[in-house]
Design brief:
Layout: E1 6-7, E2 10-11, H1 13-51, H2 58-77, H3 79-87, H4 91-114, H5 118-140, H6 144-147, H7 161-185, H8 191-216, H9 219-228, H10 231-260
Antiparallel strand pairs: 1-2
Helix pairs in contact: 1-2, 2-5, 3-5, 4-5, 4-8, 8-10, 9-10
Length: 261
Amino acid sequence: GLTSAIVDGQPDNATLLAVRRTSKQLYRYAAALTCVLLLVIGTLYVRHVLQANKGLDLPFVYLAWALFAAGTVLNNYFGYYTAFIQGWGRVTQCNQVMVLSKTVFLILGAVLTVRGGELLGLGIASFIAAFCGRILAMKFYEAGKATEGIAAPSIDWRILLPNASRLIVVQLGTFLILRATVLIGASFLSLVEIASYGITIQVLMILSGLAALALNLQMPRMNAAQVRGDKAALRGLLGSAVLLAWLVYWGGAVVSLAAGD
């Protein structure tokens, strides 16, 4: 098992370094597994959809799929950045990474789609958004410099496997809940119809995520106000956060609806 993370009242940097190295290994395995699943099962699914929709530019569609898959694998490979940032309590920085990634995808995807990029535009937007998010996460991931060079104990990656496997199951279930309608609908609807539905769902999910971040960014200040017993400040912070969340969601929905028409 793992030893305590606190030694003589100070952080156990040696154990932290060992856990980080082991986490890197686990995330690399997860990224490799994701890559295999996307290349095999994902590509077979794309091929099945294309067979029901003749007349499409196959290299164009496969390139869009490859870019989307590459962005997903990139997120998984460097996912430990965000995990450690959140674990260190840097909630604001973690949310900034999410905001940047979602905003880049939303804006770039809309621009490229309007300019005639279609599926390829969305694939490019997905990859660039993932790349930008990982770059910002890497910038925030600065504590590693303080522990490099320390003699760290060896941790068997299988110690972290139970929690990691549960996280994978949860993420897979979340993905299927959010995407199952698109995956199943593609077998019964035309590609144009299901693409329109998928893009709409994606935009609404991004807007919902951005609206939730408006609340999450205020959580530390609201927690501090609650600890102080300052109910007036707590009500003001909660009210402004909810108002901002509504403005972000409905403002974005109206703009998306106008642009879609």
